[in-house]
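INFO batch 0412 | record 1 of 1 | parsing
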Amino acid sequence: MKKIKYIVFGVFSLLTMVTTSCSNFLEEEPLDLKTDGQFWTSDADAQSAVNMVYSGGVPYLYGGRNTGWQPTRLMYNGLLSGLFVDDKKDGDLSSNMETLNINFQTVAGDVGELWREPYVSIGRCNVLAKRLPQMVEAGIISEDRKNELLAQAYFFRAWSYFFLIKEFGCKDGEAQGGGNGGVPLVLEPYETTDPSVINQPRASIVAVYEQIEKDLLGAIKYLPNTTFYDNGCRITRPAAQALLASVYLQWAGYPLQDTDKYAEAAQMAESIINGGAGHALEQNEDDGTNQLSAFNKIKNNKKSKEIIYAIEYDETLNQGNPYINACMTGQATAWVEDDNSKVFATSVLANMYHASDVVLDSYEDGDVRIKEKNFFFTNYVSNAEFNLQMQQNSD
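INFO prediction complete | emitting tokens
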């Protein structure tokens, strides 16, 4: 009996020791993560935070799938319009679009990402807008460095709000309950989970456009005036100018119809053309007598002066962006080069997303845009065959 009692007392003492020291034991600092208090202590931290905004928000919506057999979020409007179709139909959204089975239950998850992801990017940009000036005050980065990094954040915040206002905006007074037609304007990082702080009402649609304009003008002031690839694939002044030109065009149209913005859009576009950054339209190799078009010059290298902004993927066809393969027809697996090597490194092709016959039939006879390998293509011609065709046409 004594033996059992000693064991009980021993276990009780051990439990007492564990419980008294448990709180200290559980306060272990993670070795592979930095808290907000540990972060923002070096230039590398600031750069790392800016790098995050390049992969979230609207860029994420271009891909973000675990499989290439479902449409990306930015393909949804094309499917809704009926002008583009998904022959694979592995995604629920594709099937529901075709059968017009559109309700909250069938599209809420997919459409929810269109709302959520831009705000993820906006949140990151808001943190940068608050923390970077503090790093200058602490002597960690310079004022010029802050402006360089913050300009990139302003670009992505503006892009996110521009996407949101196009997808979810309407005229003021026409939103649910007769409220404003913009989207919630969140310009400070959330530091609370209080719903009364987090759940912001819609701003007026004009206020959203004005904030987008303010962010982009602020970005243009400090972004380098060079080409995308000469800037290490980072945002440039021409990229911000091009986005602002698009914003002005949208602002001039429905629902605000502020037609004065057309002139501002033209002015902003001209600032790219005449700005000396190095961008230029590239002439096609032929003189126009064969294809009568410059559309068929494929941008297959990083030297193109036409590229203002690009989302990078691994160019190997069976790696990186799966949509390269997914949007090709299965018959393309038989395409070969002049040396009989396969055009595609995979046998899995799906024709997942492509223009419908309604689109293809809408072009008039002789329209150069519908010529093979301009906007669309349905068969493959090797280099030798192409050159032979060009020679025959010239003869």
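INFO post-check: The CA atoms of residues 6 and 12 lie 10 Å apart.
INFO record closed
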